[in-house]
Design brief:
- It is a single chain.
- It is built from 6 helices and 13 strands.
- The protein is α/β, with parallel strands linked by helices and 211 residues long.
- The strands form 3 sheets. A 7-stranded mixed β-sheet has the order 2-1-3-4-13-12-11, sandwiched between helices.
């Protein structure tokens, strides 16, 4: 299978690609993982991964600035190719982001990306934190158990999300959305590629996922 890791000058592209390769090896899957900004390659990818780090507005602008890339992404996902957004890549799935003004998102899941309200806790929310979910809630969570840890680095998170689109949360001065899914589109707020075996399990589940 051809897996396109979208290159728009944002995110841990090499780490994400390496994680996908390792996850494929663990599952015994044949995966050709390509870091690319070529719309033609994205248009024929079997699976699409959108990493991202930094500000929502910067990432949205970076993606839109590559001629034809966003259009190819939308078209391929609309055709049914499984999609995984990582960190800001997940945030871009929302209706809008509020970092440095209002920036439209993809509108694939309900809600907006807003600065976290954490009381006396520090921002960014950085480090290992527990995932909470209902076992069996989604195929991407297969092989995991509530309380497994993932690695987070963020100050903004989804709020106003739809209950049936939120498949995992974590606790940081209250519930924080950790994973979303809608149809063939899913995302992790945490860095799956930095989350050791938990992350590799999720990436492997994504590679095997047939929504």
């Amino acid at each position: 299978m051809l897996v396109a890791v979208i290159d728009y000058q944002s995110g841990n592209l090499a780490s994400a690609a390496r994680g996908l390769v390792l996850a494929a090896e663990q599952r015994g899957l044949q995966a050709d993982v390509q870091i690319t900004s070529d719309p033609e390659l994205v248009a024929r990818a079997d699976r699409v991964v959108l990493p991202g780090q930094g500000a929502f507005a910067d990432c949205a602008q970076g993606l839109a600035s590559v001629d034809g890339l966003e259009e190819a992404l939308f078209k391929r996902v609309a055709q049914g190719a499984p999609f995984l957004g990582i960190c800001v890549g997940m945030q871009l799935m929302a209706q809008r982001g509020l970092e440095y003004g209002i920036t439209p998102g993809f509108g694939w899941v309900q809600g907006e990306i807003a600065r976290m309200e954490v009381g006396t806790e520090r921002l960014p929310h950085m480090g290992w934190n527990e995932l909470q979910f209902t076992p069996g809630a989604h195929p991407l969570l297969d092989g995991l158990k509530p309380g497994d840890h993932a690695y987070f680095v963020h100050s903004y998170a989804l709020r106003g999300g739809k209950a049936d689109e939120i498949i995992a949360t974590t606790d940081y001065a209250g519930d924080v959305v950790a994973m979303v899914a809608s149809g063939n589109r899913a995302g992790t707020q945490f860095h799956a590629e930095k989350s050791q075996q938990v992350g590799l399990t999720i990436l492997g589940n994504f590679l095997a996922w047939n929504p």
